[in-house]
């Protein structure tokens, strides 16, 4: 998550700081479509082929001292601290939220199951897969400007998505997605609270995630685990997710409790997820285990307990053989990163719920983006004419960073932040309140908590009253 602000301390001039040397991309890994940036090839089957690489590789961050900025911020909330643009990735936080939809096939799988237990298993896998794209993504997305939006329609995947930055202080992003076949609605709001703890930055998630399966008249709600970036001062950056995620089926009373385990001593528990699904009478129906960076399995509680007892007695453990599409172990990381144990301990008879997608071969030179993430800022020919003027794809600092124009991107970022400051001062002077365009504040119908709800109408494409934020 991002933690830029229009309340910059002013003691760091990004535009005047020389950026490190670029990393050369393998020319054989360039855009396989043969199109210029922004153009999309149409395959013979009529499905769009999205780009497979960014226009320019990421920049080296080795020339920057994050400590000079963060040393004043230990224990403080970071939403008002401006970071050098070299620590960003060329996506807005609104686009990062859209990465929830990368594993939408899990929602489709949930919609296809008649058994409520199997539906919950698929929803649990979807909730875990939503954080999987963050693995090794140590660049921060751009903080959205107030009123910024992002839309994505993927007919090949069967959904459309709209998000809006509905508040700047505190920073709140609201989103809404629906299946093109009218089979699901997925919506929520995210307010990440960020703190710096000396060697790490912690993002505590706030806001409710809601998934509605319309065919079964079911609604599931949950919140995300806490995300922590380690070694922000020195050493190799690494990520962990920890905390308890409770997924509640408000129709049946079933609940899935997932424990994202903290790293622990010697990295024994790093990336591990364990939990269970219980019915409304608290009877355990199945156990779920795996890693949020690799895969998720489920088995019945009796089998799981028997296996654990044998494990404690020193019984032989059967290790799951890493397949080609599982990302390699991080055993060769810096000394400050815990040694990652071998892959998931497979329990015989378990059912595979989800496995991470293989990343592009040049992903490490593209901010460790997945194939889905690479396509998010793609500006296709003719798209500017139909997009809302507040869409992230039209944001000049992100666009210039993606194209490798780092100095221009830094200057544009400063200009946009100053424009946002001036607009806020003008509203305060005239005593005018900010009005969101596509979402309104209300109550989540299932949890009873405060939430931001979609007001509708975005895809009618009446953008006449959208704010001028760029």
Notes on the structure:
With 470 residues, this protein is an alpha+beta fold. It has one domain: Beta Barrel (Porin), CATH 2.40.160.120. The protein has helices at residues 67-70, 93-98, 105-112, 116-132, 301-312, 371-374, 396-402, 406-430; strands at residues 41-42, 48-49, 88-92, 140-142, 149-154, 159-167, 172-179, 184-190, 193-196, 200-204, 209-213, 218-222, 226-230, 238-249, 255-260, 272-278, 284-291, 295-299, 351-355, 439-443, 450-454. The strands form 4 sheets. It has a 15-stranded antiparallel beta sheet that branches. It has a two-stranded antiparallel ribbon with strand order 1-2. It has a two-stranded parallel ribbon with strand order 3-4. A hairpin with a 4-residue loop joins strand 7 (172-179) and strand 8 (184-190). It starts with 40 loop residues before the first strand and ends in a 16-residue tail after the last strand. The relative contact order is 0.16. Mean pLDDT is 81; it is low at 1-39 and 316-335.
Secondary structure elements and their pairing?
Layout: E1 41-42, E2 48-49, H1 67-70, E3 88-92, H2 93-98, H3 105-112, H4 116-132, E4 140-142, E5 149-154, E6 159-167, E7 172-179, E8 184-190, E9 193-196, E10 200-204, E11 209-213, E12 218-222, E13 226-230, E14 238-249, E15 255-260, E16 272-278, E17 284-291, E18 295-299, H5 301-312, E19 351-355, H6 371-374, H7 396-402, H8 406-430, E20 439-443, E21 450-454
Parallel strand pairs: 3-4
Antiparallel strand pairs: 1-2, 5-6, 6-7, 7-8, 8-11, 9-10, 10-13, 11-12, 12-14, 13-14, 14-15, 15-16, 16-17, 17-18, 18-19, 20-21
Helix pairs in contact: 3-4, 7-8
Protein name: Oxysterol-binding protein
Biased composition (Polar residues): 28-40
GO molecular function: cholesterol binding
């Amino acid at each position: 998550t991002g933690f830029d602000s229009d309340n910059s301390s002013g003691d760091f001039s990004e535009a005047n700081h020389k950026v490190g040397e670029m990393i050369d991309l393998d020319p054989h890994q360039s855009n396989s479509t043969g199109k210029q940036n922004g153009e999309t090839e149409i395959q013979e089957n009529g499905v769009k082929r999205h780009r497979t690489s960014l226009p320019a590789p990421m920049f080296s961050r080795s020339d920057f001292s994050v400590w000079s900025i963060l040393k004043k911020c230990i224990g403080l909330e970071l939403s008002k601290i401006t970071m050098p643009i070299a620590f960003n990735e060329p996506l807005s936080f609104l686009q990062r939220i859209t990465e929830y939809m990368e594993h939408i096939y899990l929602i489709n799988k949930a919609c296809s199951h008649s058994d409520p237990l199997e539906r919950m298993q698929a929803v649990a896998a979807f909730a875990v897969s939503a954080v999987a794209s963050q693995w090794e993504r140590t660049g921060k997305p751009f903080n959205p400007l107030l009123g910024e939006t992002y839309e994505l329609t993927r007919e090949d995947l069967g959904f459309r998505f709209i998000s809006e930055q509905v508040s700047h202080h505190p920073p709140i992003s609201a989103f809404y997605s629906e299946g093109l076949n009218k089979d699901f609605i997925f919506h929520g709001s995210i307010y990440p609270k960020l703190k710096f703890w000396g060697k790490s930055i912690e993002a505590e998630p706030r806001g409710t995630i809601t998934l509605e399966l319309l065919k079964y008249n079911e609604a599931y709600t949950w919140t995300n685990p806490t995300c922590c970036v380690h070694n922000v001062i020195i050493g190799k950056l690494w990520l962990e997710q920890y905390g308890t995620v409770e997924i509640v089926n408000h129709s049946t009373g079933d609940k899935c409790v997932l424990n994202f385990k903290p790293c622990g001593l010697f990295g024994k528990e790093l990336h591990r997820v364990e939990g269970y699904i219980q019915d409304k009478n608290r009877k355990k129906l199945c156990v779920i285990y795996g890693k949020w960076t690799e895969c998720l399995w489920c088995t019945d509680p009796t089998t799981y307990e028997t296996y654990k007892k044998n494990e404690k007695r020193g019984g032989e453990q059967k290790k799951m053989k890493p397949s080609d599409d599982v990302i390699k172990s991080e055993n060769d990381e810096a000394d400050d990163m815990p040694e990652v144990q071998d892959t998931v301990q497979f329990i015989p008879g378990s059912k595979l719920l989800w496995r991470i997608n293989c990343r592009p071969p040049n992903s490490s030179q593209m901010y460790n983006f997945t194939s889905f993430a690479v396509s998010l800022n793609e500006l296709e020919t003719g798209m500017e004419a139909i997009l809302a003027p507040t869409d992230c794809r039209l944001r000049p600092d992100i666009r210039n960073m993606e194209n490798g124009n780092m100095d221009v991107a830094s200057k544009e970022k400063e200009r946009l932040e100053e424009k946002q400051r001036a607009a806020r001062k003008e509203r305060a002077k005239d005593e005018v309140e900010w009005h969101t365009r596509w979402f309104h504040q209300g109550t989540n119908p299932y949890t009873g908590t405060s939430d931001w709800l979609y007001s509708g109408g975005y895809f009618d494409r009446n953008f006449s009253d959208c704010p001028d934020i760029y």
